[in-house]
Amino acid sequence: MSAQLTFVAPRRAKPSRHLADLSMAERRAAVAELGEKPFRADQLSRHYFERFTTDPEQMTDLPAASRDRLVTQLMPGLLTSVREITCDGGMTRKTLWRLFDGALVESVLMRYPDRVTMCVSSQAGCGMNCPFCATGQAGLTRNMSTAEIVEQVVAGARALAADEVPGGPGRVSNIVFMGMGEPLANYKAVIGAVRRIVEPAPAGLGISARGVTVSTVGLVPAIDKLAAEGLPVTLAVSLHAPDDELRDTLVPVNTRWKVAEVLDAAWRYAAVTKRRVSIEYALIKDINDQEWRADLLGRLLKGKLVHVNLIPLNPTPGSKWTASRPEDERAFVRRLESHGVAVTVRDTRGREIDGACGQLAAATPEQG
Ligand code: SAH
């Protein structure tokens, strides 16, 4: 066998710089560094966040000579669509994206009569290791950058504005951090993304913070930090069990922060933000769906600013677990309601395209 020399390009450690990573002041400084007038940063930002374009040809308000360079330097493409699958007559659309280093992430757009929800990823893979979740099985590849997270939303907004989603031109109204990853384990980039999502143009997309949900396994210090950000986003806590014995196995980080500690952090969050906290609970047949557990959960949540989202388990390939029987699900709901706790069973949009929780961890929050 003859020896072969292959040239291996040096791996870039980080995604390219993008204007969505930067504050307005930083964008103006970056543009000035490129020898352009600072206000060009505002024009570029409006192209990205208002018109969702990265095509220099369309940026007729910028000098032709500068467009390519500004776009290359501040709006490099970060996501490459690998695959797109739609269902529900095109109203649900899942996209598999490749990042610059080959890492894969997914996002889902779900159109409803009154809103459009986008479910976005915050990490390639996830390190939380929850045994019922498809992402958890593969482990963590890496954190996503702010701009990589934001670009998923911009791609959806672009498709909606271009009338590519049935139902006429539309806008993204809700964002849920329920795709791949544990958002609070990539805190800085996620907060940056939330800021870009809620800041009005030219700084960002101008989506109401009330429409943004950050879902977490319950990283207590990060929940407290989030409460102090002054961003009134909805917090969703993936509880899945009301007792430590079971939760230790379903959400392994529970061995670090127990149910009581996680819920205390949730109530502090509700007190500071005045926002109702969502409790996520995947109903798994004969594992966590017993009436006594509903009762225990009801007692823990009674009288609190809370809403329970029950999610029929979406079995992952090879999983021994499956969704609860309908009668057990109904009994669970009734038990919770008997404690005066608000509860809904989540719609499982996109299940047939593996776009429901777990394969994609796609989900729909309650409307806040
Ligand atoms: N890491 C974050 C966000 C991603 S998962 C979190 O855990 O909250 C979004 C939601 O989908 C979480 O509540 C998660 O527990 C749930 N989920 C994951 N796999 C699921 C599955 N197979 N069936 C139902 N829900 C699932």
UniProtKB/TrEMBL annotation:
One GO CC term, this protein: cytoplasm
Co-factor(s): [4Fe-4S] cluster
Top-level division of the source organism's lineage: Bacteria
GO terms, molecular function: 4 iron, 4 sulfur cluster binding; metal ion binding; rRNA (adenine(2503)-C2-)-methyltransferase activity; rRNA binding; tRNA (adenine(37)-C2)-methyltransferase activity; tRNA binding
Entry's Gene Ontology BP terms: rRNA base methylation; tRNA methylation
InterPro entries noted in UniProt: Aldolase_TIM (IPR013785), Elp3/MiaA/NifB-like_rSAM (IPR006638), Methyltransferase_A (IPR040072), RlmN_N (IPR048641), RNA_MTrfase_RlmN (IPR027492), rRNA_lsu_MTrfase_RlmN/Cfr (IPR004383), rSAM (IPR007197), rSAM_sf (IPR058240)
Binding site for S-adenosyl-L-methionine: G181, E182, S215, S238, L239, H240, N314
Catalytic residues (UniProt): E106, C357
Annotated cofactor note: Binds 1 [4Fe-4S] cluster. The cluster is coordinated with 3 cysteines and an exchangeable S-adenosyl-L-methionine.
Catalytic activity: adenosine(37) in tRNA + 2 reduced [2Fe-2S]-[ferredoxin] + 2 S-adenosyl-L-methionine = 2-methyladenosine(37) in tRNA + 5'-deoxyadenosine + L-methionine + 2 oxidized [2Fe-2S]-[ferredoxin] + S-adenosyl-L-homocysteine; adenosine(2503) in 23S rRNA + 2 reduced [2Fe-2S]-[ferredoxin] + 2 S-adenosyl-L-methionine = 2-methyladenosine(2503) in 23S rRNA + 5'-deoxyadenosine + L-methionine + 2 oxidized [2Fe-2S]-[ferredoxin] + S-adenosyl-L-homocysteine
Comment field (misc): Reaction proceeds by a ping-pong mechanism involving intermediate methylation of a conserved cysteine residue.
Family matches, as PANTHER family: 23S RRNA METHYLTRANSFERASE, RADICAL SAM CORE DOMAIN-CONTAINING PROTEIN
Protein name as catalogued: Probable dual-specificity RNA methyltransferase RlmN
Gene that specifies this protein: rlmN
